[in-house]
Design a protein that fits this description.
Layout (H helix, E strand, L loop, with lengths): L2 H4 E6 L2 E6 L14 H27 L1 H8 L3 H17 L1 H11 L1 H14 L1 H5 L4 H15 L1 H4 L1 H8 L10 H11 L2 H22 L5 H16 L4 E2 L1 H4 L4 H18 L1 H32 L11 H27 L11 H20 L4 H22 L4 H45 L2 H15 L5 H8 L23
Parallel strand pairs: 2-3
Antiparallel strand pairs: 1-2
Helix pairs in contact: 2-10, 2-11, 2-12, 3-4, 4-8, 4-20, 5-6, 5-15, 6-8, 6-12, 11-12, 15-16, 15-20, 16-19, 16-20, 17-19, 18-19, 18-20, 18-21, 19-20
Membrane topology: Multi-pass membrane protein
Protein name: MFS general substrate transporter
GO molecular function, one term: transmembrane transporter activity
């Protein structure tokens, strides 16, 4: 490594420092890793995220037998789903800052190891209290799988390069033939095997931390204490990071109508996912005579629907890029919302359809949720510029709390109101929310101009500055999604 290519003398009030940086093409820079290493890292993390998500659906498949064996109500068993999902609303605010100080890899491996361990006491549980406590702790550590992954993808892929539901299918058969405890044991085996692979293959991707380690090594080797990485001079305290991820997110939620209503809209759509984890098997087993194992097969339609939704998001990206080009290269946040208007209309239609047929609508529901999710995340990221992470944090909190709450009453609601009327009520709520994307497409620009938080972004657009990629690691609770550009 040639120092002349990687170092620059800088004077500060604390003295002179030699600031090192990545030389062009440096193979230790995660952005310069070869494709094999990048894809290995990406696939390992995607599998981890998938397996963590499957634990939610897996648990729901065994609730009936578990509560019967432990002698408690089904509602008590649903609390296990609530605490797991609720932890995803809270813990990400703290995991992000932790990864900035300790590095992503240590947080990944440490949290995922603990996530795996909590399957054991759940599988051996003798009372519902043990199950609920362990599910909460499992969720706390599992949150790392969705909190930090977007930042890792930003670490190793360029903006241009960045660009499902299967647990209920097999867990019904596991529960039917082996019992609910084996759902936990099998998940432990699968997650344990993946953890072993990550322990061997996963490497640190946070470039600023790697550069700081290099500077530390150079200080030790040369004896010159002036060598510093930029992050060592610009370090933000963990207190400031926590403040940004909590206080500012709360302020945006209560002061910004766009953030509030979009958060509510996305939260409702996301809550439908977890509601249907509870009631789809209930309706098909109880209402149509499916066996317990076959009761999970309707989720195949969710897989099909997910691919339709993914295809719509690719077309949405094309529309957004076209709008940006027509606007002289200046991004138009409202152009993120075109396909969400389709999702907004189809969501209540699909809920009505499910309510009064209970067969054909499920593929419609999933792409609607997917399109809404994609549009809202990206609109908030574009529309709030430097405050984007806080805006996304706010909707993430509302979304996960609502998703955690819905399963607590979904079974009772569908039993007491009957399937048709319970679904109709949900469809009517979705209908009330239909105008949201249409209003934002028409009036979004003027609304943002009046916002003190979105004003910075508006000014940047007015001067045609090139939009920067949202660095999801800088504010921790951007949790479940990175920017899709």
């Amino acid at each position: 490594m040639k120092q002349s290519n990687t170092a620059e003398l800088t004077s500060t009030k604390d003295g002179d420092y030699i600031i090192i940086s990545w030389p062009e093409g440096d193979p230790e820079n995660p952005m310069n890793w070869d494709k094999t290493k990048k894809w290995t890292t990406t696939m390992l993390l995607c599998l981890m995220c998938l397996f963590i998500g499957l634990s939610t659906a897996g648990y729901s498949a065994g609730i009936a037998k578990m509560t019967e064996e432990l002698g408690v109500s089904v509602e008590a068993g649903e609390v296990g789903m609530f605490v797991f999902n609720a932890s995803f609303a809270i813990v990400p605010m703290f995991l992000g800052p932790l990864s900035e100080f300790l590095g992503r890899n240590l947080v990944y491996l440490g949290c995922y190891a603990m996530f795996c361990i909590w399957f054991i006491p759940i599988a051996l549980a003798k009372n519902i209290g043990t199950v609920i406590v362990c599910r909460f702790l499992s969720g706390c550590f599992g949150a790392a799988g969705t909190t930090i992954i977007p930042g890792t993808l930003v670490d190793i892929w360029t903006t241009e390069e960045r660009g499902t539901v299967s647990a209920p299918l097999y867990n019904g058969y596991i529960d039917q033939n082996l019992g609910w405890r084996w759902i936990e044991w099998i998940q432990l085996i699968a997650n344990g095997a993946l953890f072993a692979c990550e322990l061997l293959l996963l490497r640190e991707t946070r470039g600023s931390l790697l550069l700081a380690r290099r500077a530390k090594k150079m200080r030790k080797e040369t004896g010159d204490q002036r060598y510093r990485a930029p992050s060592e001079l610009e370090a933000v305290s963990i207190k400031d990071l926590l403040h940004a991820s909590t206080t500012r997110a709360a302020l945006l939620l209560v002061r910004e109508p766009v953030v509030f209503f979009f958060s509510l809209w996305l939260a409702f759509a996301w809550a439908m996912v977890f509601l249907f984890f509870s009631v789809i098997s209930l309706t098909f087993v109880g209402n149509h005579g499916f066996s317990e194992g076959a009761g999970g097969l309707p989720y195949i339609s969710c897989i099909i629907g997910t691919f339709f939704g993914l295809g719509a998001c690719f077309h949405q990206k094309y529309l957004y890029d076209s709008a940006t080009r027509k606007n002289n290269g200046v991004p138009v946040p409202e152009a993120r919302l075109y396909w969400s208007t389709v999702g907004a209309v189809l969501l209540p239609i699909s809920l009505f359809w499910f309510s009064w047929t209970q067969f054909s609508s499920v593929p419609w529901i999933v792409p609607c949720i997917y399109m809404i999710f994609d549009a809202v995340q990206n609109y908030l990221a574009d529309g709030y510029g430097e405050y984007a992470s806080s805006a996304i944090s706010a909707q993430g909190f509302v979304r996960n709390m609502l998703a955690a709450s819905f399963p607590l009453f979904s079974r009772q609601m569908f039993d007491n109101m009957k399937y048709q009327w319970a679904g109709t009520m949900l469809a009517l709520i979705a209908t009330v929310m239909v105008p949201l994307p249409f209003i934002l497409i028409k009036y979004g620009g003027s609304i943002r101009e009046k916002s003190p938080y979105a004003a910075a972004t508006t000014n940047l657009e007015a001067t045609s500055e090139k939009k920067k990629t949202l660095d999801v690691e800088s504010t921790p609770a951007s949790s479940e999604c990175s920017r899709v550009n």
